[in-house]
Each structure stands twice: as C-alpha cells, then as structure tokens.
Amino acid sequence: MAASSNCEIVLLRGIEDSDGYPCERASTTQCSDCGSQICDVHTEECDLCGDSFCASCYYSHMTEPHAKPVLPERVQPKRERSA
Length: 83
Ligand SMILES: [Zn+2]
Ligand SMILES: [Zn+2]
Ligand SMILES: [Zn+2]
Hints:
The chain has one helix at 55-63; strands spanning 10-11, 21-22, 29-30, 37-38, 44-45, 52-53. The protein is an alpha+beta fold. The chain has a domain at 10-63. Strands 1-2 form a two-stranded antiparallel sheet. Strands 3-4 form a two-stranded antiparallel ribbon. The radius of gyration is 20 Å and the shape is elongated. The model has no long low-confidence stretch (mean pLDDT 85). The structure holds zinc ion (ZN) (3 copies).
C-alpha cells in the first residue's frame, strides 16, 4: 500500500466522461469517513463536529448524523381503554 499524498478525488470532465481524471493536488487531509486523501479544495469541513470529509461523504454526513436532532426517545405508553 503506497502512501499516496495526492488528492484522490476523481473529477469528471463531462457527463460522457465515465473515467474522469484524478485531482492530483497534494492532499492536505483525509476524509474522516472513507479515508480518501483530499486536497484543500476538495475538503468539506463539518461546522458541527469539525471533521473533514470529501464532498460525497460530507453530503451523507450532513444528511445522516446531523440531519436528525438527537432526541431522547419518548415512549409514552398509551393505554386506550375501549369501553
Ligand atoms: Zn469520503
Ligand atoms: Zn483535490
Ligand atoms: Zn459533523
């Protein structure tokens, strides 16, 4: 496993470009989720927890852990008495 110090984000030139090309900027950090090396232009930092993510992980990070406000589960047993 070679220590890659280049950004692993693959850019697409267009819709028809299925392969794309790597960003190849020097990576400055690592995605906290998938572990990809990411350069500063491809780093999305979460304002809420301060972690760094690549764009796609940032998107899912914001839609998953931070999307739902952490609420204590309120289970109110309802006893419905049907006469
Ligand atoms: Zn990622
Ligand atoms: Zn990059
Ligand atoms: Zn976060």
